[in-house]
Batch of 4 targets.
Target 1
Amino acid sequence: MNDDRNKVETSEMLKVFWKSFLIQASWSFDHMQSLGFAYAIQPVLRKLYPDQAEYESRLRAHMEYFNTQPYLASFILGAVARMEQDRALGRNSSTDVLSLKTALMAPLGALGDSFFWGSLKPFSAVVAVSLLMANAWWAPIVFLILYNVVHVGLRAEMLFHGFISAGDAAELIARYHFTKMAKLFKAVSLTVLGGILGMLPTWRLEFKMALPLPSAVSTFAGLLATLILVAILRRGGSPVKLMLGLAALCLALAYGGVI
Amino acid sequence: MIAFDFHIVLPIVGVAFVGGIIGLDRTAAGQFMVSQPIVAGPITGWMLGDVTTGLVIGAVLELIWVLDVPVGTFVPADSSVGAVSATAVAILGSGGTASPDVSGFSILLTTVMVPLTMMIDVIVRKQNSGLAEYVLAAPGEDVSRRLALAHLSGLVIFFMKSFILYLIVLPAGLAAVLLFARMPTQFHSAMALFVKLLPLLGAALVARKLSIRTLDHFLLMGFVTAAVFTQFIHIPALSVSVLVIIAGLLGVRLSER
């Protein structure tokens, strides 16, 4: 029983890594990433279960409801690959494998949403916009590099880390310091955002406003206008409503002869 | 401004095709953030020969939509469709290089379309449930093959959603730009100002989501650093951007002590 046929090799893990980029290809409200998970774990199951009936049974078992942050799904895929390997070697049961999936998906979903969507993405975006305002045409490339070095790097590392640690989420959190890093990215994003406002008189030509004011005053006016908008947003208001409101204000200023 | 003719069909179909491919990155494939406005806008602009308009539209829409994120079952606004459509409508509607007023009007048009794009996204994701049912409903058949077929069909569905949407939105947007050309001068001035003010709204939206304070001390620190280096020491803007990032990192280190 304990031969190479029951061991997951790097080649299977690389196939899982590649397929994990398509985990949301058939995303739906009812099943979320269920098909995507089964599709990604397929190479591991194919290796571990040469018996067609058992392979199909395991594949079907992985088609149950699954939803997490798509990047951190790599960690769960790695962990499940390890658990399936242990199962094939007779060290655990089907219930253990599925319980691990269920236990990990919600907390890792929350962790990933907060880190990737809530801090890394705005950080990369704000840095890129800051460079763009300073006339750097290559700002979008910086955005992609900043984001994907972390994104792809973590995705690859977490897949193998999930396998090695057999899904030890506590170790994952201790190792990657997601919360601390999220705090850092948010703080730097806010600083850069303030920097964008502080550079207002040097903004690229398309955004330059011909105000009859000294540049220091117009810079302060920009900050003040932003803070007023923040205060309005705190009282409720969607981006769409605010954009329409801003357009209406511009029309009022134009028809009022102010501009 | 240009009138509708056969020559505009090719760029519309081209943008719809590339937009459809870019749109896959939003949910279905990769999520490398190529679909973010700051990348999707310039790609569209480059395709149509006016990268600058793509950069300008992409930058403002990036700030506005960057923190509208897919958490749980929430489907966020399709900022990729917004950026690609606004850029394409602005450039094609201007017959070359887009002017600020046309860019502003194009952004406004795509803003109005946001609820429609969200609704279509929700419909597609509801329909996708049928893919899982297709795989699960056939015991005894080659489940592996059915799984691959159903799952990868999702890519085609997501692509077609965006592709068809662009084929509707782009001609409609161009028709609206033709009407815009006949609007009074005040309307044009208003739209030119709208573009210039949008970064402030974008900054407010990001600041609102990243901090619980109206005036966050990190935001204030970045503002003061940039203002001093720009206006009193007269350092080039690009260097100021880098200095502000360093100031932010130092600020975090100090606040940890």
Note: Chain B has a mean pLDDT of 92.
Target 2
Amino acid sequence: MTVTATPQSPASERKPGAGYWLKKNLFRTRLDSVISVVFGALSVYLLVRVFLFVFVNGRWEIIRVNLKLLLVGRWPSEEMTVLAVAIIVMGLWGGVIAGLIAGRQRLAGTSTAAGMNAAERVSDLVRRFGLIFATILLLLLLTSTAGPWLTMLLALVAALVGYWLGRVAGLRKWGALANWVGVLLLAGIPIGVFLYTTAATPLAEWEGFFFNLTSAAAGIILSFPIGVVLALSRRSKLPLLKSASIAYIEVVRGSPLFVLLLLANVSLEFFVPAALAPSKVVRAIVTFTIFSAAYVAEIVRGGLQSVPNGQSEAAKALGLSAYKQTSLIVLPQALRNVIPAQIGQFIALFKDTTLAGVALGILDLLNGAGAITQQPDFRGQGLIIEALVFVAFLFWVGSFTMSRESQRLERKLGVGTR
Amino acid sequence: MTAPPTTKAPVPEARTPFYRNVKVLAWAFQVTVFFVVLAFLLWLWSNYLTNTANSGIPTNFDFLSNPASFAIPGAEFDSNESVRNAYVIGLMNTIRISIVGIILATILGTLIGIGRLSKNWIVRKLSTVYVEAIRNTPLLVIMTFTFLGVVLQVMPTIEEAWNLGFIIVSNRGIGVPWYSEVSGAALFAVVALAFVGWWAVAKWRHGVSERTGELARVGLYGGLTFLLIWIVGWWLIGPTFTLPMIDGRQLEGGIRIDPSYFSVLIALVIYTASQIAEIVRGSIQAVPVGQGEAASALALSGFQRMSLIVLPQAMRIAIPPLGNQYLNLIKNSSLGAAFAYFELTNVTQITVGNGSPAVPAFFLALVFYVALSFITSAFVNLANRRFKLVER
Amino acid sequence: MTDTNPEVFADATAVGGDVMIELIGVDKFFGSFQALRDINLKIARQEVVVVIGPSGSGKSTAIRCINRLEEHDAGRIIVDGIELSEDVKNIQEIRRETGMVFQQFNLFPHLSVIDNVTLAPRQVRRMPKGEAEDWGMELLTRVKIPEQASKYPGQLSGGQQQRVAIARSLAMKPKVMLFDEPTSALDPEMIGEVLDSMKDLAKEGMTMIVVTHEMGFAREVADRVVFMADGQIVEVGTPEHFFYDPQEDRTKLFLSQIL
């Protein structure tokens, strides 16, 4: 007796349907199903609560009214144009750097963008930076004047122009003189912007989220050379240098940053000649620098260890002096390897800047959020929750985006796959 | 045979001028750098001494014998006790919250870390959301949330305390039953004895299992022994338990879990658990896939594969970064000072506010923190060495 | 003829006869382990000496002592009349006169091929960029890979990388080239191209010391073969002597294991 099988589409053409997916991922076993139902209900409940809070019940007026205070503290209104100019110039600078890197990558053949068509490129950018753009847009929507919109628009234009310039420059090989001029320009712009801004508003009055961002940047930048020197000393065979750097690194890494900030708050002025009374912001940045240097030292040390010994041996065999061996061959490779870890350190410092608010009384974003709930219009209404959520959100967006970029870089550099 | 070669007359072993001698140069370099750094530090120190002398601030540790001028709730410490005792209490509180925090964070973090690798989609997604949300938020923000948002807002005032019979929850503290009239040490000894019993039974069962091939069932036998010893032991000692009660505006009886301690602990646990989850996940994923495959090919069950093959190897990889997170938790406990928890930093801050000299006071605190770090690192290194894979 | 007496095998059998490198009673310790025992060797100008031996015999250590990548503990090393001592001036000069090719190539991955080759001439001999690049291209042509100049080491095959390494060492116009197992890390099909470059060098009259396992190269190109074991020179001789009439038992044992 022949049995005729009912004609079915060949197995390879049948795609697993929704039922299959549910069974595999949510209801594999009885226990699994129970877990799925329980947690599923919990998630739905939480999502609904969050949604209601953010869009329906939340009383965001307090944020809207105090937006400037939260973002830049008590920045003098007449100096706002200075701030705007600074942001636009830094946008240009950032664009140039990004463009240079893109150009150089394309030159060396390591560009991932090169392999993408326009649509892929756009979706890639959206995935990476969409959150930041959305947040900035959200903040802009909360403002009531045209100024911020104009500034952001100009900054965006400047960044795009900068990117184009940077790419053009990156794609060409330049002579030694041009290289030096370029480096000086690139280093000089942030310094120039800094001087320009502090001339208008002294460092002591840098507050709000602006403080969190800039003090973290300052801390990382200033601690970097110190950290490199410490790392090199730790690896040297010269006993004096080695033990001194180990002592510094281990003591600083064993100390809580909060305690160091409290100490700086009450006693930093004793360590400098009485004439220089450092402001709170300066104290914070000095402490961040001292603290960060020890962590940067460990990161760079790891990078130095990751460069094979053969590199310095080859450099030695070619007759390069010890200084040139390190600066031309070993360090460039080491630093390139630790970029993801460095970004991680910046993120950690960025989050830790909130401690300066409590320890030193600086009106940073978190402190400011607490302060605005005490304003006559808003006190006693339990608005602290809205304020804290806003603070958490801003920090979260910055931290999450940077950490994702760092993971992407790590994958690209293939550092983790050794 | 060719004529003996003419050698270019080698330079007779001349004495290397010292300014070109590699070894001399190396020493000269490091000595110079050392002295430059030393000079800078001495300059800072001399500034410090002149400035403090001018302001009349002493630079010694005499302040430790002064009366504290503040009270620490929850401890038997009034304002007449010495600053030294305040430091001791602060240190104990730091250690207390650190140990509890480390244990809880490890448990929670491990669960969530394994959750990130679960086959159940919801569990996986929830764990990921937890980790990504918490990891990227500053700890201080989280702590502010738990303190203000949860404790002061969610917890009811003493008048409206939630009374669950044997636990009372209010914003003045959580009251739980506690023992009295017997030595805590004796009770603790019984629990310790119970652990010993578990271990002894485990060894016995392993022996049986090796000899006869029977399943060891350590969990069953050991667990029962543990409970048995604990219950019998405590029954023999006969402690009385006092229940918490509300007396006017205070909690009486039992023991009071301080809301500051509670909220700081919760925040530390939540935050550190998110970091630990990533470490656990990473270390399980770092165990080569082939290991699990080999285990499956040998017909080991999923649970056996995890507990006998994968987790032990994952643990080795996880120890150093875990140790790092424990150090971070200990240091992060200092944030309790901002939330009225009387740990070491808070004590230091208050006593400086009351007039003790700042640099010696904070120096002492830093010494304690660095010492705690070293001790913890030593334990971690010990664990690392003990679990290292034997290699050629 | 074998002898540990320095005079005997100091006789150069190659042309010239002018001694380029001299090792006299060289000892080297790593902790308590003695890696080199009383090494005595003279190498004449334009001579090609191949050093063979089992692993751990000290052959790499010996040539690494010549350019001070390792520091010898006793004895004397003299390169082209310059004594290798703690004098940094001597060390730098010797390093300028010797070129080394490593087993792991050790090209600088962050620099392009042409930059790898021109780095030392520009930094150490202060050659202007244009001149250095012309010289670099000439060298790359000599090792037959001029078209790779603007690529990066990561984009090249092993054999190509090693040839770039040879060009890089030649850029300093050294008087001696030291090769530390140059083909041991290469896939078999690429060994030939590297050996060809080395043979060209030998034909052009470069003084070479080559530590290798490639017996074919030794037979074809070497003026002398040195056999080392357990940190000592066991036997020295011409390739014919060596491969057809070895004297020492140790030598016979080694040859029977590898041939």
Note: Chain A has 17 helices and no strands.
Target 3
Amino acid sequence: MRYAADVGALARKDLLLELRARDTLPAMLLFVVSVFVVFHFALPARSSDLAASGLLWVAIVFTALLGLGRAFVPEREQRTFDGLVLAPCDRSAIWLAKALATLVFLAAAEVVALPVFALFFHGLDAATVGAVVLADLGICAVGTFAGAMAVATRARDLLLPLLFLPLAIPLVIGGVGASVVAAPGRYLAFLALYDALFGVLCWASFEYVVAE
Amino acid sequence: MKAQGPATIPLVDRAYRIPLPALAAASLVLVTLALGLVFFVVPNDADQGFSQRIFYFHVSIAFTAYLCFGLGAWKALVHLWRRDPRADLESYVAVHQGLIFGSLVLVTGSIWAKISWGHWWIWSENQLVLFLVLFLFYAAYFMLRFSVDPGPQRANLSAVYALFGVVLIPVSFLAIRLAQRFIHPVVFTRHGPSFGGWMLVAYCVAQAAVIVLAYTLYRLELAGKRLDGRLRELREAFA
């Protein structure tokens, strides 16, 4: 299929750039581990495990933010964004490819971050891991969209957290809920609903973000 | 719907819209009437006493803020659909009014929380938390809008963001409801079914008053912004 091939080619370009330059992923990894160390000292000695579960989600959102901030920077610096917009492919393919590439970075960071979290704080159950996977989809879909918006403005990086965090609040609620309650089904379903709703919305409206 | 060019629009506006002075007079009368009903006619609430009276305005303002955000999103959709710069301005003004009324929801909610529970902020009041999220979201709308130069791109970005808002409202509401289960197991129950007679009348009048007031402000701001735009165009033409 033409669309899938376009998305594949664009995502491959981002992954290849990262493999060669290694800009984003090492920074995300170092950041998330540093955040865990900060959290260790931020939590007083007798804090419950529940507090640590909450902080895991803070770490995930901020690590994602770090990666998302970088997502559209090369396009601006190298002036490839105009080329992408002019390319004979559906504009939403640009968003989908960028979201997939960011998802790969975030997942790679979490493959390290979750075991480190288990080592430093407490073990993770299947519901938490499932919630992380579902939340990652939403974070990358909405975050890439917000990143594309932010990079079109004068404020650039300053604007991304302001645009992204209010949109990410429901994800944090769903994620923390799935991590701390005994029956997480409701929260996982909520995360899936969020992914579906905002995925479709981003996919349908990305055209207007890049078109002049 | 009619799709005239920008030049003919002011005439069309006058033909089918209520004039601004009439709207202003109507909102003055309605707000005075609502204040009179709320403070002098309605009996004290059985559970909460005098402080419950703030609800007539708190709830009306919250509903009006939703209407403004909804209108903003609708105008945004119209803009994306027809590429009409007028709809962009209307969407912006509606969101602006929504943010003003949303701030009032936070203020009235805080006053009520202080009187009922002794704290200026309570996380267990879903509506209040939702408005905090919406306040942050729509405050970012203005950051976004004012860091892009005026033009089609700014209009598009604003419109898409305003559309995200109406999806975020129900999603956030659902999320905050879900969060109550692990953050606040105790749910406060507000006044029961004893809501009738003068209370209902007062609420309906207050609701109508706030909606008419919001519409008046919307029209006023829109008129001001349009005048501003015309003036700039004329200045550029003469320069």
Note: The radius of gyration of chain B is 20 Å.
Target 4
Amino acid sequence: MIITKMALPRRTFLRGLGATVALPLLDAMVPAASAMARTVSIAPRRLGIVYMPMGVHYDPWTPKQNGRLTELSESLSPLMPHLDNVTVVTNLEIDAAHTTGNHASANSSFLTCVKPKRTEGSDYVNGTSVDQIAAQQIGKETPLPSLELGTDLIAQVGNCDNGYACAYMNSLSWASPTAPNPTESDPRIVFERLFGDGGTPEQRKAELKQNKSILDWVLEDMSSLQKQLGSGDRHRVDEYLDTVREVERRIQRAEVSVSDSPLTDLTRPTSVPEAWEDHVKLMYDLQVLALQADLTRVITFQMAREASTRTYPQIGVPEPHHPISHHVDDPEKLAKLAKINQYHVSLFAYMIEQLKKTEDGEGSLLDSTTYMIGSGLGNPNVHNHRNLPVIVASGAGSSIVGGQHVKYDELKPLANLHLTLLDDVGARIDQFADSTGRAGEVIEPLTL
Amino acid sequence: MGFDLSSSMYRGLFVLCFFMNAAGASVAAQQPSSSGEFDEAGLVKQYCLGCHNDSLETGGLSLEGVDITDVAAHPEVWEKVVKKLRTGSMPPQPRPRPDRSTYDHLVSYLEVALDRHAAANPNPGRAATFRRLNRTEYQNSIRNLLSLDIDVTELLPRDDVSFGFDNVGVGNLSPTLMERYLVTAQKVSRLAVGSRAPTPGSRVVIVPVDRTQEDHLIGLPFGTRGGTAFTHTFPFDGEYEIQVRLQRNRNENVEGLTEPHEVEILLDGARLEQFTMLPSENMVMQANSAYYADAGIDNHLNVSVSVSAGPHVVAATFIEKNAALLETTRQPYDAHYNMDRSPRQQPAVRSVSIVGPFDPSGIGDTPSRARILSCRPSSSSSAEAEECATSILAELARRAYRRPVTVADLDQLVSFYRDGYTSGGFEVGVETALRALLASPEFLFRIERDPEGVLAGAPYRVSDLELASRLSFFLWSAPPDDELLQVATAGQLSDPSRLEAEVRRMLADPRSQALTTNFASQWLHLRNLDAVRPDARLFPDFDDNLRQGFKRETELLFQNILSEDRSALELLTADYTFVNERVATHYGVPNIYGDHFRRIDLTNESPRRGILGHGSILTVTSYATRTSPVLRGKWLLENLLGTPPPPPPPNVPALDETRSNTRIVSMRERMEVHRQNPQCAVCHRIMDPAGLSMENFDAIGRWRDFEGDAPIDAAGSIPGGEEFDGVSGLQRALLDRPEVFVGTLTEKLLTYALGRGVDYIDAPTVRAITKAAAEDDYRLTSLILGVVQSSSFQMRRSQS
């Protein structure tokens, strides 16, 4: 094997069933990013959102304590080492998600809080998701305004949920009401998106320049096409033109950050790890990398899909997740559902661990990053969207106070929390979907 | 996807409806006279209005204000009615229903009126103006354009599925997708032309972990077992390193390595090198378990070899040690092993990676270079080079844009060529222009334009070139070939006999296999097989070999019906199927040896006649741990009967949360709960009986007569039909109304061909095609021809 500038210490992400990944670029990228000379002395704020499907079994999930937490409930126990960084919120709801295709709307409305249009066709209408609103503000300075990740590689064929197009189930992040962002689940492709092909900085720059001139031509071509069309079709082309301009912008930003950029790599992630847990952790590792290298500041991660029939034999649940979530109060099913919930939480805890361990300027990456994990479905047995399970993890740089359980007396819109998150990362807006205010309680200091 | 019970509620409405119909049930069914006047309005009043009136609006439908003597006023309503009457699913059992001849009359009355209305008011519908090539079409376009095979799943994100197909919701273009197209254009143009030595890259091919590798696999030499073989396009002449890795278990030890084994790596069928794989001697005790520290033990399965640019077959496999039985247990697993219970007896290949080129030395003639570089400049004159490049680009653009090329098209491409020529010469120039071409919207999108001066909302004939694209993407999932383009450019494609000739030519072409691998695999949900993971404890006999075998079996049946011009009904009745050893073992068919597929005849009693008995369908409609009559019923209703389960109405109150459940034994008993609760019964009384009739097949398609101790009760029914027993009864029930099955297939074909969801405006077209096909034994090719000849396929409605 030819070894290039790999005298740098390797960072092995994962060993297990042959999915070894070594990313020497990590060390090379960090100086490059800080060499960008951030003019602000405060570290940039970052936002991450993780989706877990099909709600939870409430009993072992909801902490018994309200306010300041000194212990965590059973399903949340993997988060104990990070108690001071987590805020558990109870009694949030998405009213608009109550549709006949609850799985589709749980997913699609989680970050948009609007009722999706019921259609199987491509005329879907949702809303602009909160991560994209954040990206429009804080994503302007990074090569990638946002990153959308998932773990499901194989698309199901057929109607996805009672008359709702599969786009609703597939996409958490929506750039506009009619534009779902596709998720990427192959770590190799994610890696390539983040670090490209490699090559010398000159080669990288030449590539970017080439792409830019192609896009100039595409813009021209589309504009002249547009003139020949009727009004409805012209509108469609406007969307395409916006897309192309957005890609041009990304190229411009990438050109800036490429100046001190890395090297050829010969060991990208080989492909998708066999074990789901390994796959999830690898995706988390890539998120940490992307944040640390400041390639993006907004990430959404669909850890599993709504209505997923995945089985979890590794934790003693060989039955598919979706039927289990229709537990009809059967104690055996409830216990299994709780196990799945806890498992998902443990993987989230892994992510927080990685954020804490990663240096970022004077502190850790967690200081400047806020991560939320939650589900768009509340009680999975009856498919409602009330009392959604939501946890926010934050660090020193956040205005969110950790180590607390915020339990509202009556149901509040999830959109309120979204507004708070947007504030927290510096992308303040006044109103979002059905918001009635901010989730002030997660940020105001509590009296003990 | 699971079906949401809790949201399908009628509650009070439904209960009320029960009462109202109970009252009406006492009235004897009116006996119509055999000829003379039928009182259609009276029939509606007697049989329908009890539920479908303005105050109840059952199922969201009221027929109260809708005049049956003026069918043309509300075709959208009457098409719905026709659908229900055709399948006999309304009035629902056990409501009073008229006799069969009354049904037939009413259906015929309505259809005649609807067809007449449609003929007078043609509406071919309007698929999107911009339709992006989906992944499959992109891959096929590259093959057509550049004679290059690429793996598009590594390059482009998957497409969303709408109305059951992934070529429908393709009007979108997100920035991420555009970026992927740019990256892909760069990679493809580089691989196709190879104008410059690339930096070393890598590709890793991974063998699914649940593939059994104890026997000979097709594509590998006799005398070997297991392993994998695949085609890889080497980008440049040079040195490449091929590394083989073996499967490891949860302790990260190589599986099955208890004796020495011989591994060989092959290139184009010739052995490059043979290696001895010895078991590890490094046992380490830790806590209570022993494991072998064998981290790099397969590092030596590595060869450096000089390879020329272009496609080559790379393979890694084991020399077969012996032909004796592997196990001495009384009932060895069909799969010989599974991860959970029974570890591998012999090692298996996990992955083959190819890294290179190192010391790149040049590039000769690859299939793609031969295709693209139709001329080469003989001197160093830049003018000659540009002339040659221009002719190359003109040809490429014509095929890529699927139309004759204009001067303006060419100018821009030539300017890209010039940029590349300046930096690196002729071939760099061609590659640069090709890269731009592959990112052009005229390549990536199929565009259908309303002609100048057409009235708003009026139907018009699509141009011959647009028709050519529709035709080739329908039959081949690929762009038109040179012959079709020529016919279209000459304006001859709209001539009906010429069109038919082209259709027949294209169906005879091997590219029509796309109808099997793209259309049928989506229609029948065969694609979902890749995601299926039956529980290893409950189904230790399942492996990837079986998964792939299932898919192949059903594909081969569809392919056979297509290429031998047979009736579509044979999909249900075929007295033959296709198996290899693995599938035959699973089905209990004796004396079938080898990994290749061959046709076998089936007896009358065989449960494998038709797709209802194929392992593929049976597995894809089950969960990992058990069968699901609900999924099966839904699949049948959606894909064969064209009547997907009704969506739940809005504003239905939530299910009572504190309701508890007792443990139930058989699947049938468990499904009873659906029917006991009126809120669930509404949909489940339609879905469950259909699926329950298939209970003799377990979750991986094996025949069973018992579920635990209880004998299987396979009584079932489909909407509008009598009760029957088992899959053979289901088959007969479907064949009793062949026009329903064929009509559904036609709907699916039409959706796929038009790239839009079909609705009531297309129902007359579907009827016409089905009726015409009935005269021709319901041949599959008749349906296809019918779709192509329909006005929906040849015309389009302009923007309103």
Note: Chain A has twelve helices and twelve strands.
